[in-house]
Structure formats: C-alpha cells, structure tokens
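As the work plan foresaw, our protein records have gained a structure token line. A representative record is set out beneath this paragraph:
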Amino acid sequence: MRKIILSAIGIVLIALSFYIAKSLIANKNKPRPVKEKVIKTVLIDTVKNETVKIVIPANGSLVAKRRVELFAEVQGVFKPSRKFFKPGQTYKKGEALITMDASEYFASVQSAKSNLYNTLAAIMPDLRLDFPDVYDKWRSYLAKFELDKATPALPEITSEKENYFITGRGIVSSYYNVKNLEQRLSKYSISAPFTGILTQALVTEGSLIRSGQKLGEFIDPSLYEMEVALSKGYASLLRVGERVLLNNLDGTEFYKGVVSRVNGSINAGTQTITAFIEVKDEKLKEGMYLEARLDAKEETNAIEVDRNLLLEGQQVFVVRDSVLDVIDVKPMHFSDTKVILKQIPDGTIMLKKPVPGAYAGMLVKPFRSSVKKGDK
C-alpha cells in the first residue's frame, strides 16, 4: 500500500513538472506588445501677409494740464469767506480763493495816495502861472484822482521843462511808490486763474499766513496729460497730433487722447524719450493710472503671432504633409505677448499654438480652428 501511494505522488510530480516546463517555453516565445504610436493634434492656420500696425504700449498717471501751486507773497490772517477752503471745493475764474486781512496795509497805501494828491494840489498854482499850456491836463488828472480807486496813470509829459518841473517836485517817484504799494495790496487776495477745483488745502480760516508759505493746489479738472517714456527707437515715429487709445487697468473704460508734446532730448540714463498724451473726459481724475497704445507705424507684408511661437534662432514651426518643419523668419517688433514677423510666404501652414516637445520631423495631426489669423 505504501509503495502504491509513493508511486502515485511521483507520477503527479512528474506531470506537474512537465506542465510547468511547457508553460515556461510558451511564454518565452510569446511576442512583446508593440506600443501604439501617439500622433499629437495641433492647431494650424494658413499665413496671409497683410499690413500690420506697430502699436507701442505705454502707461502712466494723469496730471492736470493746468495746475497752480498757491503760495503767499504777503503776511496776514486768513479771513473767512462764503466758501470753505477745503479740498474738492470748486471755484469759477476770478473768484477769490483766499483773502487775508489787509486793513493795516490798506491804511499805509491810502496815506501814500493822500501824500501824492497833496503834492499834486500844491503845484497847481505854479503850473497855472509858469506852464499854462499843460495846466488843463494836470487839473483834469487831479479831478479824477480818487482815494478809494486805483491811482490813474500820470499824464504824458510833452516837454523837457515840464519833465524837470514835475520830476523835481517828487511827483513821479511818489506815483511809482503808490503803484508799488497798490500792487502789493492786491496780493492780500488770491483769485482763481481759471475755473477749477481745489485739490489740496494747507491752511484754514483764521490762521496766520506767512510770506512764502504754501497754501494749497488748484487744478483745471477738464483737461489732463499723461507722461510716458518710450524707447529711443521710436523717437522718429512719434508725431504731435497722433491719436492714442487709452484704457484703465481693468480694461473696462476707454478714452481717446492725442500726443500733445514730444520731448526733444533723450534721457541719457534710460535711453528713453518722453511723450505727453492729452486726454479729456469727465470721468477722469488726477492721479488715475492709464495704459496707452500708440500707433507708431505700419509694417507691410507681415503677420502678428504669439511670441511663444518664435523659436531660438528666429525660426517658427510649419506643417508640411502632417510633419513639423522649421523655417527662418525676420522679427520686426516685439510686444509683451506678440511679435510681428516677415519673410513667411503666403499660404504657409504654421502652428497657431505651441506644442510641448515639438521637433522638426515630428508627425502631427493638423486641426484648423474656426478663428482666422488677423481676426481680433
């Protein structure tokens, strides 16, 4: 019985060994699976050369074209007025911005005018006797002389004798002394040079204002300028009067401007040229940051593509019979995201979007998008 069991186990082991050996031989001869070749789908477009505008991007903040920094030339106490001297207050042209108490100085002006009047009155008898031909004009001048009004100009002196007489009595020097005092008296009141708005106020009613003290800033809110710095390569392209499109940083508001001035010199440190763009709109405020697009010139027989399509060595990928190839191109202008290219023949099929890992000779599957080149 024992021999029978051992014989059965031996037969099973031999059969199992034969099966395992057969399986190993079969697996060894089985062919390895071939990886399926993946063909990438690429966006393409057909080149059509046209005239492309070179647009120069620039940015800057707005500054009022007409602005005045208010300074005091005399000393006095700030008198209250109908309007509060506060930022945001509007004034019409000729309206008083600041009025200082000038009662003491006004009295000295009146005293000087009275002295001039008395001197003129004192010479009238001598004029009547010695210069009867000029007596009437000086009498007429004295008659219209009013202490409460501005001193009128002296009559024209027509002879040498008259000149010696009038000058010798100190009338000319007294007259110009009075005019000087009147001129200084006018500085106790500062009027708006144009219709505008107060943007800065550094004094308040009742405070003592000193000579040379800054009082505030006044601007015309109807017209602004934006200063932009451009590469010196555009110096010959910028023209006064060129139209400019401006927008805010969000790109939601657009404004029309014009190049008003171009600096005649180039900054030696930055090698840039400064241009000033004039813009007018009720929505604008001083200090707003805007972006500008200046039309510099037009490039004929060229196309505009994304910068990431340009390869090192000034080449781009093209598609020929579903295979990628490269051709040489001539870049004409670079912007932040775009590049203007020349020397690409019409009808050339090139990539519209870059392909990761692309190389010359790579097999691709072209796909033409519904948006044609040049559509904005």
